[in-house]
Amino acid sequence: MQILYRSFIALIILIVVLLAVAFLLPREVTVARSITINASPEAIFPYVNDLKKMNEWSPWARIDPKTEYEFEGPSSGKGQKVTWSSTHEHMGIGSQEIIESVPNKSVRTALDFGEHGTANATLLLEPDGEGTKVTWGFTTDTGYNPMARYMGLMMDSWVGEKYMEGLQNLKKLVEGQSS
Questions:
Q1: Can you give the residue range of the structural domain that contains 122?
Q2: Is residue 95 helix, strand or coil?
Q3: Which of 148, 144, 126, 162 is nearest to 31 (CA)?
Q4: CA-CA distance, 151 to 153, in Å (whole number)?
Q5: pLDDT digit string (tens) for 116-159?
Q6: Whole-structure pTM value
């Protein structure tokens, strides 16, 4: 009986410690990756300011070719929105809307992953020698959910890898158009 009691107390202490540590973890998670593309910001901007064109280089568009997309709003820029639906576990349902567009400099989007939360993504274009440095960033607030805060520790490897893949796809696409 004494062993059972001590095991129960140890389990309670472990749970309390894990919860306390979770609240010491950062609430806001940020991921960013960059690449230099041998093209001007003007040549790159149409591919990041149009969610339909974004599907030409986004790594997520290649995960499930059966994903259904619905576009609304303007043909590009602020207010353009895409909603997607997929039965694939890595796609699910969600939406992305361009909430800010500064020609040849940046595009900011709001992402809604339904029950999985929300985030913001930013694509920044900065002249870099003869090319353009493109930085794709992602920020989300994990709130007060302890599990989400622990998951936030892995976000850089999960999202960062996909962002780098997407930037490499964008580089091939844009540089292929300019040759």
A1: 27-178
A2: strand
A3: 162
A4: 5
A5: 889 999 999 999 999 999 999 999 888 888 887 777 777 888 88
A6: 0.84
